[in-house]
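Appendix B. Chain record.
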Amino acid sequence: MTDRNARPRELRQRIRDGERLIGTFLKARDPAVTETVAVAGYDFVVADLEHSPLSVSDVEGMTRACDCHDVPLIARIPASGLALCGPLLDVGVTGIQVSDVTSAATAKAVRAAAHYPPAGSRSLSTATRAARFGAVPAAAHVAAALAETVLIGQIESPQGLDAINQVMKSEVFDALFIGPSDLSATLEHPGELDHPSVTEAITRAADSVLGGGMPLGMFFPVVEAAQQWARRGMTLLVISTDLSMLGAAARSALAVLREP
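Structure tokens predicted for this chain:
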């Protein structure tokens, strides 16, 4: 039988080892959609609580769907939503991805919210899914959570770019992640991912992170861009979203069938 408690630690080690890992964002609330994506064989998936109606309760069902196929689920939250770290980890997510990290102080706040004392200030209960509803002793659960929880910091603003070295030195995150859409917006070129100012900022961020020996990821609307950055050393490749893929498939089928 698979030891489900070991899978999150496995993902964390795979990230730290620099293995190329492929994921996608999930925005749909139906666990059937999550399971459909999990069956496809992604290395991990990211439940997007920043840009969707997803709740902690929704994510609990999504983790169950992922567990059926041994696919780790990470929850993305905004920096203003750190209070969600504990509840999300309680329902069994593998890790937390925090958007718009702009300082070492933000990184340290993430650590406090995501870890139990003495490493952080997360509130402890073993009557949770993560602790097998009391089947795992408190001391063992706390130790496992510290060892296994994946933390990813997202850089998506000029302030974040300027703080990359300080964020890395904080040693809070297992990887950093570039959010190109928000970065383009903060640089006043919303959606223009090929604009010279945006590409220069992404390249500068990537060079800093990869040069510092830290795993790096980014969101890619299309596979081709992910392939280019993979050749440059990027290892966390998050391709599209569940709803984007569904929409693209629907439009493609209609385009073919409606041709004269």
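Further analysis of this model is presented in Appendix C.
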